[in-house]
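Forgive a beginner's question, but would it be possible to get any protein sequence you like and the tokens describing how it folds?
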Amino acid sequence: MRPLELTFSGLRSYISRQHINFRGQSLVGITGETGAGKSSIFIAINFALFGACTFEAPTPKVLIADGGDGTLAVELVFEARGKEWKVSRRLSKKSANSHHRLEALDGSETRLGRDVTNTRIQQLIGLDQKTFVRSVLLRQGKFEQLLHASPAERAHMLKGLLGLDILDTIGRQARDRRDALAPHLHKLRERKAALLDDPRAAAAQAATQIGQADEQIEQLGAAQEQLAGIHARCVDAENERMRLLELIGKLASILDTDAPEQLKRLAELGDAVAVMDGALVGELTPLRQRRDGLLAQLGDRRPGGPLADVPATAATALGQLGELVEREADASSRFDTETAEMRAAESSVSGAREEAEKLATLRKDTEQDRKNAADREGDLERQLDAWRAGLRDVRELTARVTQLAQQLRDRQSDHVAAAEKLEQQRAAVEEAHQAVTSAEEAIEGQKRLNAAAYAAAGLQPGDACLICDHELPDGFVPPHAPGLHDAEQALKKARAHAKRKADLTTAALSKERETYTVAEQKAAQLTDTSEQARSALTVLTQQLGAIDLDRHDDHNLAPHIEALTAAREQTAAKAAYLEEIRNSAAKAAAIVEAIDKDIAGRTAQLKKIQIQVVALRKRITTLTQQIPAEYRPERPTTELVTRLRDQATADRLRLGEQWSTLTQLSTEIEALETRRDQLIEKRADQVTTPAKQSQQRMLDVSTGYAALAALLHTPPATQLDLTADLTAQAQWAADIKDLARGALDAGRARAGDVSSLLERLAIEAAAITSNAPTGGKPLHAAYDDAVGRRAIATKTHDTALTQIPVMDDMVRRIESTQPHLDGLTALVELLGNGKFGAAVVQERQQTLLGAATAIIRGMTLGRFAFGPDFQIFDAHTGSLRDVKTLSGGETFQASLALALAVVEQASSSGGKAESLFLDEGFGSLDQTALTYALDALSTQVAAGRLVVVISHMLAVAQHVPALLRVSNAAAGSTVRWATDTELLELADEAGAGPLHT
């Protein structure tokens, strides 16, 4: 995937529409102040490809810019699989709808919708988002993700980057095809197993069984018709007999009751209870009249009335009011005393404060003198450190020049050897091609002879020639047809040999180019490092004079070390004097603070007392308003409040005596009403409830008699009158009981007549059954068996005729499908166990680590290399290191080397990584490491890839041929290409520091 054009608006700090044209660009830098929006350009590319953020977020809507129209729009034109594509996406804060569209610019394909667009883009670029941001788009602070990934995560990422995911695709397609075909074949076998073993033989046998069943069915049907009439008569008679027995049994079970006698006794008891209730009503009437008169006298002051609590409430409130009046008088006296004491303390603080201010001013002046001395000391120390670092850099650069000179000679020797090897391989390839040409000419001659032999087969002297139509001469013998096998094998061997030689030549050419490039890089590094060493030495000489690099730094810096020692002594003296002044000023300030604290405490106490007085007066006013009007004092004093409280207490006692009399009357009334309730309860328990039970028993008897009388067609009984007295109900119960006894006798006689009829009908049915052809089975079972056998035979006959062509088709389809399924199963087993794919990934991984080692060796002057399991070999210690032990700069170098190696391997392996995006990270490198890192990026550009780098480093901006400048203003961020003039100005700037401060 290679970006060509990017257009976006409403993205984070970008409000207006921005357009970046990457066409024709190779190495691009992006610069701007912190927070201007540089990283947002990478976020826009990621959102265009995947519709998501590069960071954890609940929704992509967090990318929508504040201050715009609430809409995020991104459009990316990119190249993938040999075609140009355009993806456009749009989100809105105000709407849940979103727009996602992918189209090929040649019009051959269009996709709409988020999911289908994402799926197609992942197919085109061969990467999911997680792999993309770990290996192609390296975010700020996330360079090490690929380096620190787990083995399983790396395997997944490498599959997509190096084009190995095609193995998963082939395995998945084979598995899907097998899984789709296997159930189909299984269903065919199930369908075949569900068919008859031999449909043709089954059809013939079923036809015979149908004829035999028809004859038996006809005979059994006639017998069943005769038995049906007898059975209907038996059913009616049996139903009548069972109904009679059921009703007789129910009536007999409930008829044994003494309910009529019980109702008569309950009538007598009810009359006695009514007399007792009249006597209680006579006692209650005068008591209720006395209670009502007393309640009328009390009025609203009755218990629970609106004025019932007035005397008690007034007595309680007046007691509280008296206490508040006394507390207010005491608080007012204490307020006057505290006011006089505070005014005395305020007069003594002025002199102490003036002395403290003089000492504070002197301390401030002394602190500034001490700071000036310390700043001079610090300046001298930093200057000495800078000169020591400069001397160290010069020594290191000088050693580096010697090392690079030796490495250049070694690399030039490697290139000469590789060039000689290339020429040898080219000569061998030419010889192999000549051998292939000879083999092809030989096999063509053999084919011509073979064609002539077949054409002349069967011809005799005198026959017409098939080519010229002339007669064949006497003695003509057809030519022999030579075998082609040997010639074909010779050609096959010649071509294989030529291919091997061509592969070796390609490898030799790659090696020759690699050694040439490495030698050129080493030469450039040697030139740059020599120039750096000369420049650094010149700068130090101008600052320090003559320098002897073979002697210790203290010799070259002796005068400046003496000046630093004098500055340190002066700073110490200033510090001692400052400590004395600070102690004096602290003592004076403490005295002022103590006096101020005392005044503040008295002020707070005075304010507290004043607040207390105001609060007490407010509470007195509020409580006075709450006292009932008849007891409320106009101007509360201790004496007046006490008198009113005594009056309220006396009123409360008199009201209590009246309430006591009322309570006594209520108790007597309640006792009589309780006795009357008990009498009512006794009537319910001993008269009403037993009467209802006896009534229900006799109603059950009446119901049972009515059901039996209806079946015997006798007159019904009279109904119970529930409004009548218990004496009348007792007489009705006695009449019903006599009628029920007569109905029982009539019912038993009718049941005996029905039993005799059933016996006669059973004899007739047995005679019919014995004459029918049942084969020893019951008649209905024999008939059902015959009908079932005929149905089974008919179904078997029809099924067999239907299954004959189906069986033939099943056999043909199974025989044609099985071989194809066996082949798919073998392929799935090869790719599905993971061993084949894992082996390929492991092989490519080792190649990747080899390429990454070559890159990181160049960036670290041969110090670092990658181990087989992504550990780092450190040449300084001679041992492997875990990547977690690397410093920030070392981690960046390893991550960058790994990313560049991934891009190289992906391209050489048919992968899709044609771009690389780097966000910051260069600030952790020193000048030398930065130079080699930028050289490594230039190698990617030379290979035809697009590299986009975000950085604050001046050296990075100077290295790139094209530069995007990002700026932020009140109207939002903007991005533009730097002009030629701006690029020239950057190139003239010195140093390797940041672009923006």
Summary: The chain has a mean pLDDT of 81.
